[in-house]
Amino acid sequence: MISLLQEAATTAAEHTESVASSVAHGETETATGLPQLDLTSFGNQIFWLVVAMVVLYWIVAKVALPRIGAVLSDRQGAITGDLMAAEEFKLKAKEAEAAYDKALADARTEAGKIVAANRADIQKELDAAIAHADAEIAARTAESEGRIRQIRDSADNDAREVARDVTAELVRAFGGVVDQGAVDQAVDSRMKGALQ
Amino acid sequence: MATEAHGEATGLSFHPMDQFIVRPLFGDGDVHWYTPSNVTLWLFAIVLATLALLVLGTRGRAIVPSRSQSMAEMSYGMIHKMVGDIAGKDGLKYFPYIMTLFMFVLFANFLGLLPMAFTVTSHIAVTGFLALAVFLTVTVIGFVKNGAHFLDLFWVRSAPLAIRPVLAVIEVISYFVRPLSLSIRLAGNMIAGHAVIKVFAGFAALILINPGLGALVTPVSILAVVGMYAFEILVAFIQAYVFTILTCVYLKDALHPSH
Amino acid sequence: MEGNIGELGQYIGVGLTAIGMGGAAIGVGNVAGNFLSGALRNPSAAAGQTATLFIGMAFAEALGIFSFLVALLLMFAV
Asked: For the segment B185-206, what is each residue's pLDDT rounded down to a tens digit?
């Protein structure tokens, strides 16, 4: 291989001369031999390759890759962040639903309580009104009974007076002496039986 | 030599190797090591193309990427996954180097496909230097990480003891052939593809010399150029991919030498 | 069609060497075909093995490229 390369280099060198002369004659330059094996150009290629690779390495490793890596991790972060936010929102929605349910139940019990309280109030008022009415009725009844008794008593007394008077007049009319005490006693004993 | 005589009988001129000549960029004269040449031009075109894709393309740093940014991210993701899958987690430390290598070979191959372009990866000097750099780096990493255990790579413990020496010889040879095959594969693919395109393109001129035969040959050769060109675009990518993946494989051998 | 016998031998040699590339083509085709038949049997495992496919193709192809290189050397450098 190496001897081949050397041989190629010498032939290439010969041909460079011939090429140079043909260029001088105004002809177009053509490859004679394999240009890849032209050892005289190796130094040039390798030197510029090293320069270009160093520049390229700097661009790729120090500028491009950190930037792309940062963008990719940012995106990953954004995606996981969004997913977490969505999870949070879901949780919040669940919480809100629970709160709504609780509020509904609370409102229901509150309403029940209010209804019960109102019913109790009304009942109390009703009871009070009924008691008041009962008391009034009792009072009226008592009053009426009192008056009736009064009337009856006064009627008794009147009747007794009348009976005494009539008895006394009768006794007198019959010519008796009126013993007021005996008359009263007789009338009272009779009246007692009649009036009871 | 042979080239001068090619095609002179028919009047066609085939110069498939002309595209690989290293010329000074300014004026004529010898190509010294410091002379800015067409190699220099296209090397820096590669640098600029990488800059455009990886740096300008991602300048938005957008969470929702633009087209160029997603291309940069795709290449990042592809190489990152490749290094992680093949060389392992501890290989990710070398990801910037491998990414640099991939971007260089990829853009060298792609830019070389432009008409009138110079393909730097078609030169043994360039690919040989890259392959030797990979080879030496990987060998040094292997010895630094594993010490003498790196030699387990050649001593196949899973094989019967009797054939281990034979296997060791084969393994050593295949180890030292690596830089050769790595560089020749890339350069050979590039030389072959470009030379074939040039040869087909040379036939396309036949219509100017021999209209009767040319009416038949020229369309066929132009179609062949188009087909080869499409194939070469594929090859350009695949060779960059293969170069990178083999580097990863070698790196894996250096990091985990036991089979 | 004048020329010397050495040039004749050179061209014949180049042509014979180029046959080696045909062998590499067969090899690459073998790799790809076997991969495809395996991948169609077990498509879920195929995606993880594309890297192996390319490595295998690269190795098979490298030998063809070697013969191409020898052909080039014979053609231009001898």
From this structure: 999 999 989 999 999 998 888 8
| Residue (of A41, A181, C50) closest to B85 by Cα position | C50
Task: Mutation target for A interface from C65, C73, C75: give the one with most A CBs within 10 A.
Answer: C73
Distance between C38 CA and the closest CA of chain B, angstroms: 21
Q: With respect to residue A1, please indicate whether it lies within any of the assigned structural domains.
A: yes
Nearest-angstrom CA–CA distance, A126 and A171: 65
Number of domains in chain C: 1
pLDDT higher than 60, residue A25: no
A27 part of a folded domain: yes
Q: Is A163 a member of any domain?
A: no
Domain-embedded: residue B214: yes
Number of domains in chain A: 1
Domain of A9, in residue numbers: 1-37
Give, to the nearest 10 degrees, the angle between helix B95-112 and helix B67-82. Answer: 120
Query: What confidence score (pLDDT) does residue C48 get?
Result: 82
Chain B residues with CB-CB distance to C68 below 8 A:
188, 191-192
The b-or-e profile of A54-90 (16+ CB within 10 A means b, else e) is ebbbebbeeebbebbeebeeeeeeeeeeeeeeeeeee
Q: How many Cβ contacts (< 8 angstroms) between chains B and C?
A: 47
Domain that holds residue C53: 13-77
List CB contacts (< 8 A) between A7 and chain C. 77
The ipTM (two decimal places) reads 0.89
**Is C8 domain-assigned?**
no
Identify the helix (H) or strand (E) that includes residue B109: helix B95-112
- Quote the number of domains for chain B: 1
Residue from the list C3, C10, C65 with its beta carbon closest to the beta carbon of B188: C65
**Residues B208-219: pLDDT tens digits?**
888 888 889 999
Kindly report the CATH number assigned to the domain that includes residue C70: 1.20.20.10
Interface residues of chain C, partner chain A, Cβ below 8 Å? 72-73, 76-78
C7 within some domain: no
User: How many angstroms away from the CA of C70 is the closest CA of chain B?
Assistant: 11
